[in-house]
Amino acid sequence: MSGRNQHPSLAAWFSTPNFAEAEIVQQAGYDAVVLDIEHGSFDLAALERYIPFLRLLGLTVIAKVLAPERGPIQQALDFGADAVAIPHVENEKHARYITQMGKFPTLGDRSFAGGRTCGYGPTDQSWYERQNRRTAVYPMIEDAGAFNDVSAIAALDTVDGVFVGPSDLSLRRNRGAYSADADDFTDIEAIAKACASASKPWIMPAWTHAEKQLAYRLDAGTIILTMEHEALRSGFTNSIDEMRSIEGV
Amino acid sequence: MSGRNQHPSLAAWFSTPNFAEAEIVQQAGYDAVVLDIEHGSFDLAALERYIPFLRLLGLTVIAKVLAPERGPIQQALDFGADAVAIPHVENEKHARYITQMGKFPTLGDRSFAGGRTCGYGPTDQSWYERQNRRTAVYPMIEDAGAFNDVSAIAALDTVDGVFVGPSDLSLRRNRGAYSADADDFTDIEAIAKACASASKPWIMPAWTHAEKQLAYRLDAGTIILTMEHEALRSGFTNSIDEMRSIEGV
Amino acid sequence: MSGRNQHPSLAAWFSTPNFAEAEIVQQAGYDAVVLDIEHGSFDLAALERYIPFLRLLGLTVIAKVLAPERGPIQQALDFGADAVAIPHVENEKHARYITQMGKFPTLGDRSFAGGRTCGYGPTDQSWYERQNRRTAVYPMIEDAGAFNDVSAIAALDTVDGVFVGPSDLSLRRNRGAYSADADDFTDIEAIAKACASASKPWIMPAWTHAEKQLAYRLDAGTIILTMEHEALRSGFTNSIDEMRSIEGV
Amino acid sequence: MSGRNQHPSLAAWFSTPNFAEAEIVQQAGYDAVVLDIEHGSFDLAALERYIPFLRLLGLTVIAKVLAPERGPIQQALDFGADAVAIPHVENEKHARYITQMGKFPTLGDRSFAGGRTCGYGPTDQSWYERQNRRTAVYPMIEDAGAFNDVSAIAALDTVDGVFVGPSDLSLRRNRGAYSADADDFTDIEAIAKACASASKPWIMPAWTHAEKQLAYRLDAGTIILTMEHEALRSGFTNSIDEMRSIEGV
Amino acid sequence: MSGRNQHPSLAAWFSTPNFAEAEIVQQAGYDAVVLDIEHGSFDLAALERYIPFLRLLGLTVIAKVLAPERGPIQQALDFGADAVAIPHVENEKHARYITQMGKFPTLGDRSFAGGRTCGYGPTDQSWYERQNRRTAVYPMIEDAGAFNDVSAIAALDTVDGVFVGPSDLSLRRNRGAYSADADDFTDIEAIAKACASASKPWIMPAWTHAEKQLAYRLDAGTIILTMEHEALRSGFTNSIDEMRSIEGV
Amino acid sequence: MSGRNQHPSLAAWFSTPNFAEAEIVQQAGYDAVVLDIEHGSFDLAALERYIPFLRLLGLTVIAKVLAPERGPIQQALDFGADAVAIPHVENEKHARYITQMGKFPTLGDRSFAGGRTCGYGPTDQSWYERQNRRTAVYPMIEDAGAFNDVSAIAALDTVDGVFVGPSDLSLRRNRGAYSADADDFTDIEAIAKACASASKPWIMPAWTHAEKQLAYRLDAGTIILTMEHEALRSGFTNSIDEMRSIEGV
């Protein structure tokens, strides 16, 4: 069905720091979670606890941070996230500026914090280099300017891949509400190709069957399969439907 | 399909004070929620916020309290719960003692607290009587002694119905792990009959199709259809199964 | 006493996410609350719980956000706020830039988030339009530059009215500490007139009797009557004064 | 107006761990606060933070604990409370049993915890004796049995005074809803006399003017003047009344 | 130095749910942690998050519960604790009653909760048996009555070992403040022997060198080496001492 | 050992809002605490509680804020902090812009908030002036540009001193990982001299003996002696080392 060489990483999308939910997705076979810090309800103290828990479960933690700003990027990485996804990157220049906040000098401009990431002990130069390699920075492609510059963005040294934001991209590419139609998929394919050229992975939320097929066909490195709210909604809805059939309603 | 005269109240079982989840179950058509305070993670400050939110959504709040003790019963009612389910009632004598904590004198021994339940204003005698009628007390039938005394328990003035605990009941009736088999259902039917004789409702967690059918057939007043953890588990599992079929795994 | 055609909306000013306080102000007859996220102690998880609770109580929620930045504006709206008040807008250019964060394209640049505001289900183009109409964006007029540009700001498509910040405005208009004097009221009247010309409402904190009269006379759309700290202070002070008169102190 | 020799301690009644509220009552001249842990929303972690803060403000902390049980009594004292008020003491025998949980052996049976109360360092025998003297235990007189035994209860070595619960007492003395009438005041006077005989203080919530006068006349050691909810209610109501008079409503 | 055959488990004593502290003790080589829920500030929601985190770090979790009551014992085990230490067990009869709350029928009377401990899925009879074996119940020996009955307590089927509470034991054995003297050690040795006879482990907090030596010599199964407060105190004190030597103070 | 005229203020570095830790450092003799809001886990509601507690303990509170932005600076000062340390100031121009957020007009551009800092009452012009004097603004010198401009930065009216960030400074001055070597100390000495010329204090984290000596010799106004994580690490490590020596490991 695809010429891809390896399984994509399969991710769940979380809106709250629910520990049981993390155990459930890990047991269900997920590889990764996306924390929607941008629109969810993750406070700092909660993140400081949740991120290391997720990592101990063996889940890759992609922190979709609050805003394209220094503070939220650094904190997610300080707390141990494997990757940051940076929303609303506007274009190549903006990407160049903001992605450096996720990499230590000389590559970037991330601020040093002792603690979790260095084992609560001292560091040396090799630690900075290992951190820069271990943690990934994914600018989101959801603005028209970023879409236009996607090849240049994907090529940046401070960029380890890109994260597609289909709903915002459709709005900003003047197609109105995202409907997962042919034009949307053409845009996504263009992003996938830019990443392939840069030999870097791309990440896609793929709620529907068609989106999952597309992501798989286009060799997405990480495919986000469903979100917390939708899992709850479908789970609770299925049970009430079952009961109503018993009631003969 | 049944001779019952009215629809049962359909409930969801919650383990955390998740506000979005409450909105989701209300939109899915649920009538009530059971808060598993006994085994979940509901702290006092969280309950004080969650219970009035659930009631504003139009959901009936059944607080399954921490233990058969005065404190947890009073607090759930102070915070505005519609009902308390009291775990591990041992027999009729114990039921008589502990259920009075949910009713004001002279009917019972609930302690007065101003605030939410009296509109943050003064009270008069009629308020106490209205509270005693508005809020329900449901002893759980999950111990062998309580099962033996179920008719006497259901008949108590301080009891508004009973709540079945099938897993613990099976363990304590020496059938080992609950398997929803014929013997389990015979016990449940006996409880339903005792309630019917006392003209009081009974409540049953009914995870499987067979349990849902039983509860419906035996005119359960409230049927609990699924729980938060199971909704999450099924939602996340279905998505990964879908993806694996695409992958051809 | 005024030629105004309709009652103003009466609001309370909150500094903490206190659920009982919300019930108390609703019962006292308030129409709206201002959440002082800028200077109060509202964390994300608290806001995600408090905003929908306030709305279920029938209170209009005006979120005075942390700063004139994309993140705080989006989050308040994602959590269901009826309006955002944006502090420290510097001038018309700044207003044009920052108020677009509260409106979806093509009108503005708000980022899409599924969940509460779309009923945890899918959206279509009409939803974006309805959101843009349902939620209001109020730049604050508290900087000298914004005061000078108030007519242009009020006229912006992305602006639904303005929110006066008298203390900061007095400081920045070189009158020093705000004293609710004639010069302060002249400034406020100028803001009211700019809004009247733009046929848009304006909002004013009116702690004193004179301020309440001014706001009423000038047809303020929302008048903020008192704040949490002051309600507590006056309530506790009155009781101790009463006691001291009994003591003959 | 009274022959009393010293000013009573004036207290505020709190339902939440609000730090600003504590500063406000301290500045208003209050001497003490009652934390209504029994019916309010004070979790353990919040109490651990709030109690030492109140004490640093110079406020005496009276913790009205969750229930007449070992755990809640010990925790309030471990966190540094000056006194515990124990609800629902049933009679002298019950008082004898439960009040010992607030005193170390050999006087009582309080469990030792290192930490705050011993300055995070070691202890010696004199520390136990000083703790027993520094911290007060106040059984509540709100059950008919406790009322009957009030003299014996006040005389116990493990009792430092009593705390009147007028609403529950009225219900349990078969007068129905408390109305601060002559019979209620007769009961309160009997409690005051029992304490005078034992040379121990008594504590009374005195919301109305008549109750404040009574408490003062009967030499109450601590008079609780108003509660958080009522302070908020009166503060917010006064402001809306003022506005309505301006509106001419 | 001892004839013991195996290394004791080395434990740290925690008073707060600090995630970084857990990582630090794990990296320092500790095997276990004791959560002082009885005197610390562990709320339910915090425990539900902290216990599984500690276990993923490879640390054995001994939850010293709030009180000798059903609720706190069950919750700690529901959240995944490896063991519960039950304070203030009064004697063999009390031990027999309360320790059964930590074991499922037919061995004991623990209440069933789905969720974490059964992998969020269904259970069968073998699961109950495995849980009873996997989780340990340690009554505390800190009351005089429990000390007298220690051999009988250690022999109970529902008891997996005992946990010494030296400070309370000294007070209740009429030696006043615990001073780690010869009489204290004689008591501890008696407890150790009772456990050896029952072939069950015992656990001892051993803050001083002499206590550590004693615990090691007497083959304690778990030795608690220091506590959070003391670690902080010594760490901060050492640094200020160092600075003062530089200052020449 | 130094020609300095007064003792430096001795500070502890905190990563969490731990109330017991605050009491421990105060008792150990510390004068001040640095709250690492930039990299720690301090949410708004926690800060609103912690800062006034620290001040009541007599500790000077230096809030190292989240980012060089208006919001975090204002909030720390609104909650009562004595000083803000502003990370990642890039150069003199940036310092001039961002430090004004910590000073009210006409000196700077801090936004007014009623409440704690003005005693929950009204303010007059003198209050603004007193606040500007009472609260200090310390830009951090940790970027190469700020280092180059340190004399100009130290001379700004809105700057009350500077705070050295040695690890980031070493990275950004192209020396790689900070090693407290001669080049690092040369940089620090240059900063100290710039402050001496401007007659303003400077602040230095001084973990090692050599750093403490340097800071003392160069008349640092505040010397930060150790951090929470290191205090825990050394405390827990020392105890396990002691035990291993007993074990003969």
Question: How would you sum up this structure, described in words?
Answer:
Chains A, B, C, D, E, F: Pfam families: HpcH_HpaI (PF03328). Chains A, B, C, D, E, F: Keywords: Lyase, Metal-binding. Chains A, B, C, D, E, F: Belongs to the HpcH/HpaI aldolase family. Chains A, B, C, D, E, F: This is 4-hydroxy-2-oxoheptanedioate aldolase. Chains A, B, C, D, E, F: One of its GO terms (molecular function) is aldehyde-lyase activity. The structure is a homohexamer. In chain A, strand 3, helix 3 (about 70-80) and strand 4 (about 85) form a beta-alpha-beta unit. By secondary structure, chain A is an alpha/beta fold. Chain A has a single domain, classed as Alpha-Beta Barrel (TIM Barrel), CATH 3.20.20. Chain A is built from eleven helices and eight strands. The mean pLDDT of chain A is about 95. In chain A, about 45% of the residues lie in helices and about 15% in strands. Chain A has helices spanning about 20-30, 45-55, 70-80, 90-100, 125-135, 145-150, 150-155, 165-170, 180-195, 210-215, 230-245, and strands at about 10-15, 30-35, 60-65, 85, 135-140, 160-165, 200-205, 220-225. Chain A has an eight-stranded parallel β-barrel, surrounded by eight helices. The interface of E and F includes residues 16, 229 and 235 of E.
